[in-house]
Amino acid sequence: MVNWKFWQQRPPARILRLRSRGDMGDATRVDFEELAPAVETFLGQAAYLQLGYFETLSRLIRATPELEEKEALSLAAGAALVKHRAIIDVIRDRGDDPAEIMRPFQEQLDTFRRATIGARPRETMLSVHITAGMLDDFYRALAASYGDTGRRIARILNVDSDRELIVDLIRATIDADDEMRSLLSMWARRLVGDTLLVARAALRPQRLGIDDEKKVEPVFTALMAAHARRMDALGLAS
């Protein structure tokens, strides 16, 4: 597991709403009071995460000789880059420097990304599908805290991520190879822990009290339910 201590400042008061969308299920409202981060933190991390997905997928494109796989990876990489650039536009429209907004999270999120790169291409494909799916869900929920800026980010994150062909490749591997099925199932369970730490670190100042834990729990329950549905769709046990 990666130890995350991203933010030392106490964040301003926000309201976090979990909205219904696809895998996220029924709408749930959760008040986080002062647990949600400042908008600059939200934007910087969201933008850099998309850039990280693009980089990981681009490296896989270079590493694979199969044209079918290159096509699947290129579609997903392109979608991540489009989302990254759209979030950058939001940052610029606020009058901020995108590099300065993202820089505080570069080292920590690069560490997270390196920790979720697998020894085999299929593991890394699964990493992107699982971690991006969970964190996109989380940031869509968090976006409700930030008024018009948050609504713009939610619309960006709602755009199709074009990972369907990657899912097809993973599913074909699972169907054809029981050993890989077991390995990928274990790998996915490992990914969940590190991914939830990234999401939790975006909320807490230093410590999360008992009452705050109760407020946070419904959001992470929804994230895990959505993750279980993704795993079921792949034919893997969550």
Question: Can you give a write-up of this model?
Answer:
- This protein has helices at residues 39-63, 67-93, 98-115, 121-143, 147-158, 164-176, 178-201, 210-234, and strands at residues 16-18, 28-30.
- Strands 1-2 form a two-stranded antiparallel ribbon.
- Residues 2-30 have low confidence and may be disordered.
- Helix content is 70%, strand content 3%.
- The protein has a single domain, classed as Ferritin, core subunit, four-helix bundle (Ferritin).
- It is mostly helical.
- It is globular and about 50 Å long.
- The chain starts with 15 loop residues before the first strand and ends with a helix.
- The protein is built from eight helices and two strands.
